[in-house]
Amino acid sequence: MNVNEVFSSAQLEGVNFGVPCTFIRFAKCNLRCDWCDTKYAFKGEVWTLARMQQKIQELGHNHIVFTGGEPLLQKEAIRLIINSFPHYYYEIETNGTIDPGNELFRDINLFTVSPKLSSSLMEKDRRIIPEILKKFVMWSTIIQGKDVYFKFVIKTKEDWEEMEDLIKEYQIQSYNVIVMPCATTIKEMRSRRWVFWNAIKKGYRFSLRGQTILFGKRRGV
Fold it and tell me: I want to staple 4 with a disulfide (CB 3.0 to 4.6 A). Which of 34, 44, 198, 215 is the partner?
């Protein structure tokens, strides 16, 4: 498995905010978003399963977050980890362009799907894959006990409008929508307070980037 870093922290975004966990950041990504704050994850090193098992045991959390990069590029590695610790809680942060497959979907407790918007400067046909997005939406609405949320990173008013178009086109339920301002500093976050007020009006969940508030651009936290 190609890994960028593994560390102990708490989930500081989304619906599990504040929960202690082990982050497994896989290397490589199939997108190159302009505002990406984890470009360092494009590279990594090869880990054996034994090394990963030892690290997870050392850190001691039974809540695992798979992130990246794009973790679904390494589905087999994820499967090996889940098989090693079958009773743990697993969440995954994905850009929504890769199908996890039914087996992996069954064993992941929480999917946070983050479709990229126009401010990413990525071509739409690379960042929005309709058949994959439709599958995640289907899972979010018909499978009881399965958590699938759609997290949109908002930088511009155009991003907000595009998000609303996607929500309408794919019939995403407002309960399953998380909006988060695009920001790597507290100043940037405050400059996008309008995202918070828009979310409140629309009935969407709002998420801050807790790691930005607490640690700035520091890695591994």
Answer: 44
